[in-house]
Amino acid sequence: MITPRRPLLPHRRTLMKLLHWGMVPLFVWFLLVQPSDVARIGAAAVRFHSVMGLVFVSAALLWWVHYMRCGLLGRPGPKLTGWARWLHPVLHKTLIWGILGVALTGLMIGVTSTVQLWAGGIVPIAVPLDLPRANDWVGLIHSIEFYALAGIALAHAGFHIWRHIHLRDNALRIMAPKLLHRFL
Question: In sequence order, which ranges of the chain are alpha helices (DSSP H)?
Fold first, then answer.
């Protein structure tokens, strides 16, 4: 009798859980630590911050590509009605497109820079066009966009906590690792 082979990759929901929870500490890192903060520490700290940026952008692009190929991973669920049913996909799509937007404005920072920027010291971001005024504007847009996205991420977390507590639909268990299920 032939036994079926196990798939090489885990289930796509498991991969998305890893991506989701892998993005959270990166998001917090970039909320709390600015390039000027790490520049005071030294070149190694700047390189580390840059590597974190490369990982964040790679994960963001992977998430966006997955969304474009497969759509949202989950549906609103039967207990969500009215405004909550409408808000569920809006929050998720806003986060996915917003993360892509942050990645693109980060690219534009590299394009408008006066010097060649490298992501993690590995990947050249773009050919610098030496546009300092545009670079200032793009940097401002990038910052505003990122902090607005942080607000949306907090709204997203609050929404799912509300669902879990108020509707008792186990919304947190869906994306939490199985190890944490007994606490939810």
Answer: 12-32, 35-39, 43-70, 82-112, 132-162, 171-175
Q: What is the pLDDT of residues 124-161, one digit of tens each?
A: 888 889 999 999 999 999 999 999 999 999 999 999 99
Cβ atoms of 30 and 56 within 8 Å: the answer is: yes
| Domain residue ranges in the chain | 12-183
**Dihedral (CA of 38, 39, 40, 45) sign:** positive
Cβ neighbours around 125 below 10 Å, total = 20
Give just the sign of the alpha carbon dihedral 91, 155, 29, 183.
negative
CATH fold for domain 12-183: Fumarate Reductase Cytochrome B subunit (1.20.950)
Task: Please say whether the beta carbons of 178 and 99 come within 8 A.
Answer: no
* 119 three-class SS: strand
Q: What is the pTM of this model?
A: 0.83
